[in-house]
Amino acid sequence: MDGTLTPRGRLTAGIVAGVGAALLVVLFLFVLQWDGAAPPASELFTFAAAALLGPGAYDNAAAPLIGAALIVVLAIAWALGYVYLVRMQPQLLARPWISGLAFGVIVFVFTQIALLTAGLYHRPTPALLGMELVGHLVFYGVPVALIVAGFARRNT
After folding, report:
1. Core-most of 3, 28, 105, 113, by most CB within 10 Å?
2. With bands split at pLDDT 50, 70 and 90, how would you rate the model's confidence at 65?
3. pLDDT given at position 74
4. Rounded to the nearest 5 degrees, what angle is found at the Cα of 86, between the Cα atoms of 6 and 70?
């Protein structure tokens, strides 16, 4: 990846990785919802919108759509950050499963800090904490790392 991808290739890798991983996270949320382990997706998306719009999001009919869009935009932004990190530290491509898990931890921690800053942090139950970690590590961090590594391999 170090110099092998053009700026356009890096942008493409970040966008594809972000959108792909966001879709996996949303699918994971829907599975949890069907299982009864998570609230309806519209509530989760409204909660995401509240981080951007404030408490008024709960009274906004467009909040679920805004929250879903916010999740995708943030997923792309984080994935682009990972592409930049890989450009600076190409050894991350050697073990994308491990670097993806570590990246998922970083995204999780900064997400919690953002929620705390927005006044939306809640102390999760152990089960919810486990689900959030699985979502961030397995369904976001690892897919981003694997997709970016795939782009890098294809262009070497």
Report:
1. 28
2. very high
3. 96
4. 90
Domains identified in the chain, total number: 1
Q: Is residue 66 part of a domain?
A: no
Q: What is the C-alpha separation between 15 and 152, in angstroms, rounded?
A: 14
Residue 31 included in any domain: yes
- Judge whether 109 lies within some domain: yes
DSSP string covering 90-125, please? GGGGT-HHHHHHHHHHHHHHHHHHHHHHTT------
57: in domain? no
Tell me what pLDDT residue 37 has. 72
Tell me: pLDDT of 2 over 60.
no
Helices (H), the chain: 7-35, 41-53, 63-88, 96-117, 126-136, 142-154
Distance of alpha carbon 99 from alpha carbon 155, whole angstroms: 20
pTM of the model: 0.90
Q: Which two tokens stand for residue 58?
A: 């709960």
